[in-house]
Amino acid sequence: MATKPAEVTKQDELMKKLGYSQKGIEYFKKKLNFKELPSADVKGEQLGHCGDYMSVSLKVDDNGIITDAVFEALGCAGACISGSSITVMIKGKTLEEAKKLDENDIIKHLGALPQNKVECAQLAIKALRDAIEKYEEQK
Ligand code: FES
After folding, report:
1. What percentage of the chain exceeds 70 in pLDDT?
2. 73 ligand 1 Cβ < 6 A
């Protein structure tokens, strides 16, 4: 059976024009990993200079491996896409590996991010680092 091609909306076209990658656009449409995680071991939070907010919640096993990660954001498309990216990227990684990630890794993961949205990726990184710090403090 042939698969139906994904519907390309006006929003998709606009996002593409603004410099978002196809992967980023898909994450934004799905709101990938944008949810609460009631069983989370820790929740990191960060407020950006722009006034936008992001949290990253983690589930970590006894070996320090991140087994689940979600985010919540009150912010722009760049923030939501970065939140989706970081939560995808860190699943299965150790806390030590996750700590080393930065906004350039998010951009690499996505393929592209508009230049003026790099700070949004930094917001996701800071929320992640806050979560890791809190987790290490409570251990
Ligand atoms: S403009 Fe504030 S996080 Fe994107």
Report:
1. 96
2. no
- For 66, phi then psi, to 5°, come to -75, 115
Report whether 111 contacts 23 (CB < 8 A): yes
Protein residue whose Cα sits closest to atom 3 of ligand 1? 120
- Global pTM reads 0.94
How do the domains of the chain map onto residue ranges? 20-138
Give the CATH fold of the 20-138 domain.
Sufe protein. Chain: A (3.90.1010)
31: alpha, beta or left? (left if phi > 0; alpha if psi -120 to 50): left
Task: Check if the beta carbon of residue 43 is closer than 8 Å to that of residue 130.
Answer: no
Is pLDDT of 37 > 70? Answer: yes
Q: Which ligand 1 atom sits closest to the C-alpha of 49?
A: 2
Cβ–ligand 1 distance for 118 under 6 Å, the answer no
Q: Which pLDDT score, from 0 to 100, does residue 7 have?
A: 78
